[in-house]
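Example record used in the benchmark description.
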Amino acid sequence: MTASAPEVLRWWADGELAVSGRLDQLTDEELAAPSPLPDWSRAHVVAHLARNADALGNLLAWARTGVETPMYPSREVRDAEIAATAALPAPELRADFVASCARFAEAVETLPDDAWTAHVRNMPGTTIPVTDVPWMRAKEIWVHGVDLDAGLTFADLPADFAAALVDDVLAVFAERGQAPDLTVVATDAGRTWGSGRTRVHGPVTAVAAWLTRDDASGLHGDVPPAPRWL
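Model output (structure tokens):
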């Protein structure tokens, strides 16, 4: 992912605003309804975004202090925290989401310049530069904002963000040896990925939808199922 820091910060900030606006439009009853994600309500999606903001804030605290502070103590703790947050009364869940987003924003905005040179570890345990953290949040907020099923769709994603997301996801698949043997063309972005004999094409946001959520409805061609992203 080769985007500049200002671009990434813009994607993150715009995503937070877009998702917050959609959440505000949901009634409490709609918030409790199922999301497109298996076994998760919309409340679970909001809870995950809240706890993810705090988890990424832990990485910024690690960079600031030098004290190892993992995103979560374990996946079991992560899952339990999401479940507990999702079970909150709707007004408390909404307030928790707003507060966690604000804490993360403050952590980004106040991180000293020298701390941005630090390296931390993500949840799988891979060492990453802390400068990746805003990008990690941008991915979470936009993709799960679509999962909220509150009117935000992949077509609403910024095209430059969607192209960077495609780059990122395909790099993950390549590392696993799962890169699709295709030529994928983003017809509206002047971008092509892969060199396979089979060609699929469509808007860059539709490519992102296919790669992250196995939704090929916006693409043309013989589109295979996408590997599991996360």
